[in-house]
Amino acid sequence: MSSEIKAKISAVGHYLPDYVLTNQELEKLVETNDEWIRTRTGIIERRILKDPDKASGFMAAEAAREILRQRNMDASEIDVIIVATVTPDYMFPATACIAQSMIGASNAFCFDLSAACSGFLYALEVGTNMITSGQYKRVLVIGSDKMSSIVDYTDRSTCILFGDGAAGVLLEPADDENGIVDSIMYSDGDMSSTLIQSGGGSRNPASHDTVDKKMHYIYQEGRPVFKRATEGMADVSVEIMKKNQLSGDDVDWLVPHQANLRIIDATARRMNLDPSKVMINIDKYGNTTAATIPLCLYDWKDRLKKGDKLVLSAFGGGYTWGAIYLKWAM
Ligand code: ACO
Predict the structure, then answer these.
(1) Is 257 a catalytic residue?
(2) Can you tell me whether residue 99 is helix, strand or coil?
(3) Is 66 helix (H, G, I), strand (E, B) or coil?
(4) What is the pLDDT of residues 84-139, one digit of tens each?
(5) How far apart are CA 265 and CA 282, in angstroms?
(6) What is the CA angle 283-284-288, rounded to 5?
(7) Is the pTM of this model over 0.90?
(8) Catalytic pick from 97, 110, 117, 296?
(9) How close is the Cα of 123 to the center of ligand 1, in Å?
(10) How far apart (Å, rounded) are the C-alpha atoms in residues 91 and 26?
């Protein structure tokens, strides 16, 4: 990054619903078992937002409120709100506008970003460039997904994977060398049909037929996605390490998207990282899509030290994938 101005993460906030959906409860819904889910995915439980009147916008607003409290800042001081989500409150207006209204961030301009499980990384890349441009000083980047709103709880291959939650960060200009250092982002639309919610958009507008055909739920071909996710996350993580002359010993933390413990383990092995340096909370929350990476940052924030070298890495529907290298600035 050539700009004189660097961006840093100056606060982290989150929101998790109270309801805990355990593997045992899923055993009652579909033909599955705790042992299969744990060994094939690493998931033990996930959170579900039960209140039908609350959705991704509410969770994003709660995460934003926690960030503002942490920075002792008024919502009116926020310049931009980016919400990464595949479960927006509505097709439009943007969930970022819903969250803006809830927190009263009247001076912010707001938009959503859709990149499935890579949504937070993509949004962090966009937000970072808004800071380094010099035009914006306070950018909220939030990942929020109410995955339970698009999960088919009769499909055992997907319903075990996902949970609800939100988390995010505040980006501000850095005061020293700590902050976002580098990024690599990729997309490949050729395989989009293997991981898709095909109903409800302009291609297949909502109708009795789309509902009957379950087109408003997540459809995933697990095996090809698993293969590409494992390759993609490991390759891009190793690529960003090489580009920045980092060895496994130099990296303090891998902050991986939490889709499957086996994908995370494979990525850490390729990076030559000690397992103790890998943030893992998939056991507690499952795959919360755009929220997984900031939820890790939130859970680990008290253990992170200024100057720690973090590699954030994700793969998701699209396909979309990427990695960000940063030096922790808090
Ligand atoms: N319980 C018990 N058995 C099951 C379950 C279940 N919940 N689900 C599937 N099975 C069975 C299958 O029917 C299959 O049985 P068969 O051999 O008799 O046909 C067997 O288990 C193996 O099925 P696979 O699909 O090959 O299982 P796999 O080991 O691939 O695990 C999983 C499935 C967990 C979905 C895995 O493929 C995966 O993690 N994929 C990648 C997910 C991902 O990274 N997605 C990207 C991000 S998500 C986003 O962007 C929104």
Answers:
(1) yes
(2) helix
(3) helix
(4) 999 999 999 999 999 999 999 999 999 999 999 999 999 999 999 999 999 999 99
(5) 12
(6) 95
(7) yes
(8) 117
(9) 28
(10) 29
CATH 3.40.47.10 fits 180-327, yes or no: yes
Same fold, 7-177 and 180-327: yes
**Given ligand 1 and candidates 120, 153, 225, 261, which is best to mutate, with the most ligand atoms within 8 Å of its CB?**
225
- How far is the centre of ligand 1, averaged over its atoms, from the C-alpha of 58 (Å)? 31
Residue nearest to atom 3 of ligand 1 (CA): 32
Q: Distance from the CA of 157 to the center of ligand 1, in angstroms?
A: 5
State if residue 114 touches ligand 1 by the CB under 6 angstroms criterion: no
User: Distance between CA 251 and CA 326 in Å, rounded?
Assistant: 10
**Homologous superfamily in CATH for domain 7-177:** Thiolase/Chalcone synthase (3.40.47.10)
Which atom of ligand 1 lies at the shortest distance from residue 41's CA? 34
Identity of residue 221: E
3-state secondary structure 4-65: CCCEEEEEEEEECCCEEEEHHHHHHHCCCCHHHHHHHHCCCEEEECCCCCCCHHHHHHHHHH
